[in-house]
Amino acid sequence: MMLFRVALLLSIIATPVSAEAKTAVSLSSDVFVEHNEISADGKSRIILSEPKKVVPGDTLIFVVRYQNDSSVVARNFIVTNPMPAAVAFVDDAGEAAQVSIDGGRNFGALTDLQVPLSNGRYRPATADDVTHIRWKVESDLPAGKAGKFVYRGRVK
Amino acid sequence: MTSKLKTLVASTSVMALLMSGAPAMAAGTQAGTSIENSVSVTFEVNGQTQTPPPVASDEFVVDRKIIFDVNATDTVSTVVNPNTTENVLTFTLENTSNDTLDFDIVIANLANGFSTTNGDAGVDNFDADNIFYCVDNNDNNVCDPGEENVDVNDLAPDSDRTIWVYGDFPITTPNGAVAAVSVTAVGLTSAGAALTDDSGDADDATLVQNVFADTDENNTETADDNYLAAAAVLSVAKLSRVVSDPISGTTNPKAIPGATIEYCITVDNTGSAAASNVVITDDLDQVSPSAEYDAAFTPLRNGTGVTTGVCDTDGAADAAAYNAGTNDISSTLATVPAGEMRTLIFRVTIQ
Question: In B, which residues are within 8 Å of A20 by CB distance?
Fold first, then answer.
């Protein structure tokens, strides 16, 4: 990962400032840990905290934010999010989301995907099979427009 | 973790970043595995596809979830006999943590009054002698030299290890004695160092911290098992009856000189273990008034009971029971089973 970060930094420096820079869309990804906290009155509350102490079985909330920082409209806006290897997809990531169970080659609704079996048959895909999540924004993304996608995962 | 937005430029091709990680296990992702969420975006501006490089979340590591258990491998008492050594109780330590750990092992005789986990024993009332334990660190199902009283070494996630406890029982061990032993395991790092509970420490996303997830969240698990002593408890009695006298024959015979007396020595085992090689000796010189062995009657050995005060005659002939040289009766009962009686019958004539 350190190597990748260095490469990212270099790419920013190496890119000449041009009209292209105005067409940028910014993107960020945050992760939170979901904890079930029992308060003094016995009620259960769900607490989101930063992922400092994370152990297998913990539920993580991934938040992907985007914003069109440019002065022009962006179209066919697609965000692709590979599942981290140590994280299992938990539940639906919203109506705009499609998932892949084959490493990002094909996307669709989880209920529409099938996993081929060794005997030539298929079984319905489950959340554990998900390798990628993709969000497609059908409408145009005007200048200055921002939004976010959220999905939930579980530490394997 | 910050949520700062990063401005990206369309210069680098999108690549699917897949994190390398440990294979999925029941214990979960290996401690220390980093998790980073990488996202990429494509969009069109004025019909031109833009593919800025992926952007990643801050990286954090999976912490060490300490969870393990110790159990006896059976749920029944281990029956032991008095005057035996190195009787074995078997325990299993299972590591379901997401990291390889060592474990410190402590064994102890439990105090009198401890209610044993096994339903067949009741409460502890005895201690085994010279208890020690052995850890099957090389998994060969044998307690090898060097495996006695040592730590459990390098127990991988989702694996278990056998721990044997050994105890001696002296000849004085009473029948029914219950001796419970506990095995306590405390998690250590794979290097054998103590594990600290980091739950109260300052958080650190990049440091592998310890989270105690075992019962009571104290990094300590204990199990118990017990021995149950089975001892033979023998009681010996000597019955006699007049068989005949020279005047009345066998009709209401009296113990007058010349009368034939039948002796029956009973050995009753009220314990819970069989007694073997029980030697019965009776010196006829001690019988008063002086009696003479009745060679006309062949002694009967291993009769099994007494009916209305008279020994049953279901024993087998034991012609060698009488030793004329020493004038004594000597016979060996090979086995007196728990809860049963064995008898030896012989006759004498009153002088």
Answer: 9-10
Of the two residues B207 and B299, the one the predictor is more confident about is B299
Nearest to B339 by CA among B195, B233, B248, B227: B233
3-state SS, residue B88: strand
B19: nearest CB among A50, A73, A84: A84
B229: exposed, middle or buried (Cβ count in 10 Å: 0-12, 13-18, 19+)? buried
pLDDT attached to residue B31: 92
Q: In angstroms, what is the C-alpha Rg of chain B? A: 38
Contacts of A143 in chain B (CB under 8 A): none
Three-state DSSP string of B267-330: EEECCCCCEEEEEEEEEHHHCCCCEEECCCCCCEEEECCEECCEECCCCEECHHHEECCCCEEE
d(CA B296, CA B21): 92
Element (H, E) at A125: none
ipTM associated with this complex: 0.71
CA angle, B159 then B165 then B166, to 5°: 150
User: How far is B62 from A118, CA to CA, in rounded Å?
Assistant: 33
pLDDT-based confidence at B12, cuts 50/70/90? very low
B-chain residues within 8 Å CB-CB of A9?
none
Sheet (strand B159-169) strand order: B68-72, B84-95, B159-169, B129-135
Question: How many angstroms separate the CA atoms of B320 and A99, rounded?
Answer: 93
pLDDT, tens digit, 9 for 90 and up, residues B70-104 = 999 999 999 999 999 999 999 999 999 999 999 99
Which residue in chain B has the smallest CA separation from A74? B45
A116 preceded by a cis bond (ω within 30 of 0): no
